[in-house]
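Q: Could you fold this chain for me?
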Amino acid sequence: MKFGLIGHPISHSQSPALFAAAYPGGEHSYELIEEADFDKAYDRFIEGYDAVNVTTPFKELAAARADVPNDVVKACGASNLLKKVEGKVYAYNTDYLGVRQILEGRTFEGDVLVVGCGGAAKAAALAAADSGHNVIIANRDESRAIRFVAANIGRQGSASMLAIGLGMLEAVLHSVSFIIYCVPVAIPQLNDSNLAGKTLFEANYRDAQYSAGHGYDYIPGEVWLEAQGDESFSLMLA
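A: Sure. Below is the predicted structure, expressed as structure tokens.
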């Protein structure tokens, strides 16, 4: 079977190496499909691949183009895996599955704080809520986070989701045990805060803004990359 990754730029991607390590026999292939235009990348997928991973900036476009988006894709409006099944394109979100895998392996008290409200952040927030944690979403554009929370009222079971602007971070940090950091730059509202005793899980593996050894438990972006990769490759081959 033939798989790939679409996005731009993606020359730095570790996905081909991860796939080769997971499936060293060479029976399946995994290639980078780098196009600046989503339609061109999508056409290449349709013409020559069984399934593709999707990365920035195409996750929302992929969700909209799929014939059959699953419930998580519908909820967060983003997909990072497209797969052909019986003539239709199915859309999945393995960012969500990767975060669930990581959260369900940990026990902690307190809320989950998600910083950001892009595709990965939305998936992380849903994964945390569906895992039973109360979630606070902090975003520079507070209205974007409010709209996302409003659209997903009722899917969290006993968990709750709250949307705030970055200016409110200091006021909520006392209740937070686990931080999922999904923006590409450091923000002073978090840098200037005491994170001792908390866990900070960073999505960015290419240009990390945080590191271990600062009084908090640090989980690097490679952990998320590998977790979602495991889920992604399993779905591709299913």
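A (continued): The chain has a mean pLDDT of 92.
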